[in-house]
Write a structure and sequence with these properties.
The structure is a homodimer of 122-residue chains. Chain A has a three-stranded antiparallel beta sheet with strand order 1-3-2. By secondary structure, chain A is mainly alpha-helical. Chain A has a single domain, classed as Winged helix-like DNA-binding domain superfamily/Winged helix DNA-binding domain (Arc Repressor Mutant, subunit A). The termini of chain A are far apart. Chain A has six helices and three strands. In chain A, a hairpin with a 5-residue loop joins strand 2 and strand 3. Chains A and B meet through helix 1, helix 2, helix 3 and helix 6 of A and helix 1, helix 2, helix 3 and helix 6 of B. Chain B binds a DNA duplex (20 and 20 nucleotides) through helix 3 and helix 4.
Chain lengths: 122, 122
DNA sequence: CGGCATCCTTGGAGATACTG
DNA sequence: CAGTATCTCCAAGGATGCCG
């Protein structure tokens, strides 16, 4: 794939631009959910609906971080937020279709981890 | 593992410690390969052996970053480095077993991306 | 060609405190 | 309980330059 015409004289590092933006869907996927917390939180929501503080406990994220990541995930359509204004307010987070579609990824990750994480001597 | 006794009066955010370190293998896996470049590079190496500059082109990472991530990946046993001291030096990177074992993850990621990335309107 | 040393900018993320 | 607002810190990562 001669994607790089060698004719380019100004072949600086800054010239790569965004040619890697859509190399393949994996890259795109990574760009969207490639951060630690996003993965951790989404994986945590596989169990089903969870509350803010539940997630805080299970993931270990701070309120600040959790709030932000949750916000981002909702914006990108990975999760859905349902608020109940009853007693002292309760908001539940749950995976959307888009988010649930990531389950195979987590399964694969889980399987890999089971196979290699232990023997690596963390 | 009741690491968090609800009876704790000093329930500060800093008390969570590492109870999330081994919640499940997914978290562990994410800790190891949860960064953008690691995923991107590993995915790129699925095609087979590649040279430094090949990776630089295809991933769009700078030499500095690439070098570092590659180094980390090698340390963790994901990839293998073969250097040929011929003419102007050539080093090839290739996935190890451990690294190849991640392929299912990338496949899942790829499939997900194909399904959802386009319709999301990047 | 491969890749390390340096500088510098950004944002991810924790601590803490405060509000509805 | 569920956030939001700040402040701060540090690592990730890009740009450049240089060297084997």
């Amino acid at each position: 794939m001669a994607t790089q015409p060698p004719s380019a004289d100004t072949e600086k590092e800054s010239d790569v631009e965004q040619q890697n933006a859509d190399v393949c869907t994996v890259v795109g996927a990574v760009e969207e959910v490639g951060s630690k917390w996003k993965l951790v939180i989404l994986n945590d929501l596989r169990d089903g609906e969870k509350r803010f503080n539940e997630l805080k406990r299970s993931t270990g994220a701070s309120s600040y971080t959790l709030s932000r990541v949750l916000d981002g995930l909702e914006e990108n359509g990975f999760i859905d937020n349902r608020k109940e204004l009853e007693s002292p307010v309760a908001s539940y987070y749950i995976l959307t279709e888009k988010g649930s579609a990531l389950c195979p990824v987590f399964d694969a990750l889980d399987e890999w981890g089971a196979d290699w994480l232990e023997s690596t001597g963390e």
